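hey can u check if this looks right to u? its 363 residues, i copy pasted from the old doc so theres a chance i mangled smth
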Amino acid sequence: MTNLNTSYEIDFNDFTLRMFSSVNRIWNAHILTELKRQTSGLSNFKAKQKYIIDIRDIESCTESISKFQELKTIPNQYSYYLEDNTHIFFSKKRNAILYINDKGVILYTGKTLAYSIPFLITLIGIDKDYYFIHSAGVVINDKSNLMFGYGGIGKTATLSQAYKQKNIKVMGDDLNLIYKDGLVSPYYRPFCIYQYHRALFPQYFDKKTPKKISKPNIFNRIIRKLSLNTGRNSSIEFNYNTISIDSLFEADKLICEKKLINKIIFVERIENVSFESRLVSINSAEASMLIFNIMLTEYDKYIKDFIVLLTYMGISFDNFCSNSLSIINNALNHASCIKLEIDKSVSPELVGKIILSELSNEF
């Protein structure tokens, strides 16, 4: 393995992400663009480093590549070996090599980033005490209050209402890390803003004056995917803009440290009902299972790699599931859990008000 110079570094949560420059300038440009895009909302964190995430050019990993060529592999797909308590995993399809140990993870990748940063954090956490929740949250009275569910439930609408409240701060817009002891740490992903968000975030449209956001079409989606994969920006107009969350919220509205969980709400949108919204009882075990299953859908495109890697490491998928559910359930012992059902016909603005009201109320 070649020693390289660090060309990008950022601290967040319990992690330090580092990119090591390559002799290949094209690789540097592509990977740096994607890393900055994925971590654009994490610049204000004051983190205490526990784990390292290193990103390097696969062409600099000649030692492992040679060793993989000598090993028996799953034909044309995967290979693995264990060395000095480090799990070393190769995916031919993704043109990537992973080094995983107690210190963190090193990803050797081609010019397309093989795995997302949240997925790498999940790999580090296989035997740790945290788990991601696909959620948005607010902090009230110095405690975290989370809402979670499948896409389109009103996370963005809720944050738009939180923006207007002086005593409420934002904690995570799409992902949050929950720890076994009940602490929650935000992970700010790039924010996708659509034309229909104009009523929710007029301050963005008024101040930033973004380029026209067009209606979605297949051609634009293909071009956008190619642009992301090559690390280059395209002049093609898309149906949304990807921006950092600090383009919508001032720094003093964003929480960048861990907060103890107070309550968690599972939000579900329902069609053809006679009510606007209603609360339904749910226990921590039910909430834990929902959190776990929803988060797994975030890793759909990586799931085969993940299961193969777990098998190589001697960890059954059942054991991983049991451990993750245990972490979530222990964390939720510190929180009130509830399910909130909302009629699908309710406007986005009203959805945000309903959810924020329930997050703010004491059960």
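Residues 317-332 form the longest helix (16 residues).
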